[in-house]
């Protein structure tokens, strides 16, 4: 926290327009360890889950959550009867092609595409649906592209590997301002970060 004390963080909201990050500790969770998510296009919600997988993934991995959204494209497989969002995310992490999941109570759908690289994949769902990014695919360099409305809103799924325009100098890493750009490419570099 701002006082330098170590405080456990269970969830975070990020507001890109004002560059504000809101961290939520144990007091923000209800007695049942359930949080009710409300859709707000001005915020990006990230959550942390305790997940056991075959693939090694950091315990500090953030999972970007899109409440009341779903995806219908790039489906790898589905798991009817899966009643745990954590089990759904674990199935995604263990599948090397999985970039995101759509979770509805009792149904887990794995997708080979990510809303971080193509926001047009997201469609409206209901209070029972959510899309969650595969946080194990994210790196500290890739995370800023999730927070850039220019990249998320302006990208489209393309087969060619042309670089997008550089984003604004709105992020910082290691105390220095940086900008990012990306391209669709599964077998080559797909993200660049440079100092401003």
UniProtKB/TrEMBL annotation:
Domain Apple intervals: 57-136
Highest taxon, organism lineage: Eukaryota
InterPro entries given in the database record: Pan_app
Pfam families: PAN_1 (PF00024)
Protein name from the UniProt record: PAN domain protein
UniProt source species: Trichostrongylus colubriformis
